[in-house]
Write a structure and sequence with these properties.
Blueprint: H1 2-34, H2 37-64, H3 67-91, H4 103-133, H5 139-167, H6 170-189, H7 223-227
Subcellular location: Cell membrane
Domain Major facilitator superfamily (MFS) profile: 1-228
Pfam family, one: MFS_1
């Protein structure tokens, strides 16, 4: 189980790094193209607000559906958004993106934002896998590893995003995002990820009902989160 957990953490690190560096890179690029601080401020505000709002719903999805399926949906959604953004970028004249009021510019930003937001689903799923895959004595270190993974992704992304935009440009940034996300999906597909904590038969007592046979509530309910 620990081997699987470490493989998932490595997979999540690449995915988180990709999503974060794409968003940072687009933020830098928008400022370079438009010279508008207001545009980048709006982007930052919308990104933060969207992360906070969608976290409630994404958490409910992770609770209801298999973790691996949600992680695959997350990366597939990001891949689709980045691919569409790449097509839009290729079909739009460069001078159009210099206009802060351009519809194409903001559609491009929304597509990139969508890829980053959908990618947030993976981070939520990863946190829940600690309980499933890691023995209780090691969970404190596992949770620390998850936090470190997120921090490293944020730190490295802030550096390489500026380097890529400065030296390679938006085209190679989008190509990198699509390729890395595709590799993440292919690697994740090879991993076997359980959705329930394994139960020791010797500790089950007289209860013959296994977790897979137990009645599980699959409704999406965010009321508890809101009350908290």
């Amino acid at each position: 189980m620990l081997k699987t957990f470490y493989a998932i953490v490595a997979n999540a690190l690449v995915a988180s790094l990709t999503n974060t560096f794409v968003w940072f890179a687009v933020t830098f690029w928008v400022y370079l193209e438009t010279r508008s601080v207001i545009a980048t401020s709006v982007m930052a505000g919308v990104f933060t607000a969207t992360i906070a709002i969608t976290g409630l719903f994404l958490g409910a999805l992770v609770d209801r559906y298999p973790k691996k399926r949600m992680m695959l949906v997350s990366s597939t959604g990001s891949l689709l958004c980045y691919a569409l953004a790449g097509v839009l970028f290729a079909l739009t004249p460069p001078e159009v993106f210099a206009d802060v009021s351009s519809v194409q510019l903001w559609v491009f930003i929304v597509l990139i934002l969508g890829g980053a937001i959908v990618g947030n689903l993976r981070g939520i799923a990863l946190s829940t896998l600690v309980t499933i895959l890691v023995p209780e004595p090691d969970r404190d270190r596992a949770n620390g590893l998850v936090g470190t993974t997120n921090g490293v992704a944020f730190l490295v992304a802030s550096i390489i995003s500026g380097v890529i935009i400065g030296f390679l440009g938006m085209v190679w940034m989008l190509i990198s995002a699509v390729v890395l996300t595709l590799l993440v999906i292919m690697h994740l597909a090879t991993l076997a990820i359980p959705d329930r904590v394994a139960v020791d038969p010797g500790q089950s007592g007289n209860n013959d009902t296994t977790p897979s046979e137990a009645s599980i509530d699959t409704t999406i309910d965010i009321r508890g989160t809101i009350r908290t």
